[in-house]
Amino acid sequence: MLPVPDAGVAAFLLADSRLPSGAYSHSAGLEPAVIAGLDADGVYPYLLARLHTVGRVETAAAVLAHRVACGLDNTGYPRIEAAIDARTPSAAQRDASRRLGRGMLRLASKLRPDSPAVVELQRTVPRPTRPVALAVTAAALGVGELQLARLCCYDDAQSVVAAALKLLPIDPMEATGWILAAAGEIDAVAAESLLVGSVDDIPALSAPLMEHWAENHTTRTRRLFVA
């Protein structure tokens, strides 16, 4: 087992685009949006719309899963997974989240194979969603729940921006500014997520157009990202 890193360094690690769930492998739904006609001017509004729909759902679920991993809640991972599925109407989005989650769980099992939280997730949900796998990995690395909440939001936002640089004629300097411009809203969503007390408190929010684009993306044979 590798040495235990500083929690701050671990949080940076989990936002690294080189990870199995990183931005090199998925676009946070931006690629199908661009195919459908979204242009460069629409990327930042898209980022914010995703933050306040998908992001709020996933961040609240991640915080709850983190508490389970830390022994502070006895909800159990399967119930959280069921709650996420119920709030994700698109089968394509559910599948994409589980692909990312499976990659994150593989990383967790490599870095912290003896972590009780990692072992329990492997036993009960071998194909977890991204927020649950991210939460368990963060807990195993000593990352706190507020750091996790910010990480969950930031990782999704930076995935949108990273994909935009590959898909559209965008100035990287401007794209970097989008993340800074969204910082206040990222912090607000992260803070709100800490108020979750049970699976019933996970927001039930939907983005129908994003779901439609995600479903269409699964039928394409030529694409840069899995989602």
TrEMBL record:
InterPro entries, per database record: UreF (IPR002639), UreF_sf (IPR038277)
Keywords: Chaperone, Nickel insertion
UniProt keyword annotation of Nucleus present: no
Matches recorded under PANTHER family: UREASE ACCESSORY PROTEIN F
Protein name, UniProt field: Urease accessory protein
Organism of this sequence: Arthrobacter zhaoxinii
